Amino acid sequence: MDLQKPARTQDAAPGVTELRASDADRDRIADILREALAEGRLTADEHAERVEGVLHAKTVGELDVFIRDLPAAHQRPTGPAYTAVPPRPAPGAIPHEAAANVVAVFSSAVRRGRWRAGRRLHAYSVFGSVEIDLSEAIFEYQQVVIKAVSVFGDIQIHVPENVTLRGTGGGVLGNFEVDTLDPVEPDAPVVYVDGWAVLGNVEARPRRGKRVADILDRVQSKVDRKLERVQDKVDRKLRKHLGR
Hints:
Pfam families: DUF1707, LiaF-like_C. With 244 residues, this protein is of the alpha/beta class.
């Protein structure tokens, strides 16, 4: 008789279909249903019924049911959903000359509020303190570089929570700390913090609750344009069906 006890199997991890659905998941399914309506694969009543079901779905598996009979559910993605942002901008992408300098020598300097962030900003703190707050700034460029050098001083950098934040640098008997940040929006601005802290401190982190309104406007514009195209397709289908 075999007295050896059988190995205890661990509980299997929940499958993808059992995961709780997010608002982004629901929006993706709703977009597929709108395209199906525009292409004539769904009637108006079917579309309305499925959209209502999407709004009440709890898991990813429940959402997949509403597009199971549509071609979009069986298409494989053509590429990765996310492209990693490098720690530094490409050579030559950012000019070497700064658009502005923020300097504090035995004093303090602050740049905050509604201001235009150029491509490059230099911050120097020598026995002083510098604060650069981009949470309400206007981003005119996709990439912004902040060179921060602190010698017996302190430099604090704050960015909106929906931008990409990268940092390269170090400390010599000091602290250089950049909280890496990846936003949901693929076209969000990228803020690069590059510098050194010599017996000083350099910190860069997102300011929670602050978002770049310009990004939201661009995203909403894309959604509006897409809805307009879908509505045009639906109108053409209806006119063709009515013989007009």
